[in-house]
Amino acid sequence: MDTIDITKLVRLMEEQISVLNRIDQRQAAANVSTQPLPQVPATSSSTWGALLRSRLAETIQPKVDRWRSGLDALLVFIGLFSAIVTAFLVDSLTGLQQDETARTNELLANLTEIIIQLNAGANVSTLKISAPAPFPA
Question: What keyword terms does UniProt attach to this protein (predicted)?
Fold first, then answer.
């Protein structure tokens, strides 16, 4: 091989290298993944709105729907429970009577007061005897 052929080969290789470098530069410029991200302020409402809507649709909204259906069932249960308890309460009010121990304690307190007044020398006609409290029915 002569030197002319080698020089041609070297020139041809340099030409190919420059073409490959230009192709590489064009591909790098077109590749978005290697480009730096554009600087957008963190308060951009469009970005946060999209993130919020996606988060709301994926996780929050199903929870709210479950809570809403659970709350509906709970309100129905509370209404039925209240109606049943009210029916039993109204029926049991007719059977209520005064506590006998409270009545006995009241009478003992009256007797003790009378004995104290008589020992103090009070006249029987001036004794203050209180009437028992009526039972609220």
Answer: Membrane, Transmembrane, Transmembrane helix
